[in-house]
Design goal:
- This protein has two domains: about 140 residues, no CATH class; about 140 residues, no CATH class.
- Helix content is about 15%, strand content about 40%.
- It contains four helices and 18 strands.
- Bound molecules: 2-acetamido-2-deoxy-beta-D-glucopyranose (2 copies).
- One 2-acetamido-2-deoxy-beta-D-glucopyranose binds next to loops.
Length: about 290
Amino acid sequence: MKLFFSIYLLSLPKFTTAITKMVSVNGQPDKKTGWPSIVYSNTEWDDCVQKCYNDQYCDVAYGNSSLICVFYGIADFGFATKEILSAELDRSSFKLDIPNGLCTSKVDDLFEDTQSYDRNGIYDFDITITSNKYDVNYQYRDGCEKPFVSPCSTCPHSMFIFRGTGPPTNLGTTRDIPTWFLCVLQCSTDVDCVLAWFSGYRKCTMYSFGSFDSMIRSEDLAIQPDTPSYITLKIFPLRSNCPRTENEVLNLKNMVIPSETTTGYANYSMTCAASNIEFSWVPTEVRTY
Ligand SMILES: *[C@@H]1O[C@H](CO)[C@@H](O)[C@H](O)[C@H]1NC(C)=O
Ligand SMILES: *[C@@H]1O[C@H](CO)[C@@H](O)[C@H](O)[C@H]1NC(C)=O
């Protein structure tokens, strides 16, 4: 019976092909867990949805009566809260693969299947519909690339994400990177990167160890028309010093920098007071006898 079942599943793709469609609902992306990758103004909702459909890095679009059009990439979207039907002010559209031939009068049925994605660091994702939200759950290709969940697990480092303005130095390297998660992933996999800042929409500025001393943190979750304020920091907490709160993360001490980095630093520490974060770097050459 089990054998029959798996053969059936494997042969399924021969009979059905998925068609990519935009599925629109009344709802507003959560601001805290949402990291827009680009914001357009003066865009009618239908044009916004079409633009998202045509853009390979747009997975969710949001629009409201101010004619704003906001794109979210995969993994940069937590959930959308449902909007009361009569309001129809906030709309979200999800790019989904719909099995061929699925004809339904219930929009919710279109969210049922696990969406196989398999690119940009994500293996697949599911959308769960509850009474008040559309909740997205992602499967990361490499569990250690999931931004900051269990920083003291077996992963060599963790990417902590928060809002803020990048360091006031021009020592960063800026690249065109289409989504925030891909900027985080780029910093995570580059041994010399310790901090990345989405310094403009689709612009990722990366900094190496020791190239800055301070930066400003922000609590502002508003969608900014042209300057986002997203920061990711690579942290190396010891299991014995596992941070449990944001404040503990931003005050981590003596984090050991991997020896394969080429920037000449062995340890780093942070001190956060009000919105100012100060960094201190211990060069590799320092030896205590
Ligand atoms: C539309 O969304 C933008 C960005 O969040 C917001 O600034 C604006 O106030 C919203 N407009 C309405 C009518 O809600
Ligand atoms: C670096 O951090 C480790 C772990 O906390 C500590 O044992 C070591 O003394 C530190 N090294 C320097 C040079 O500060």
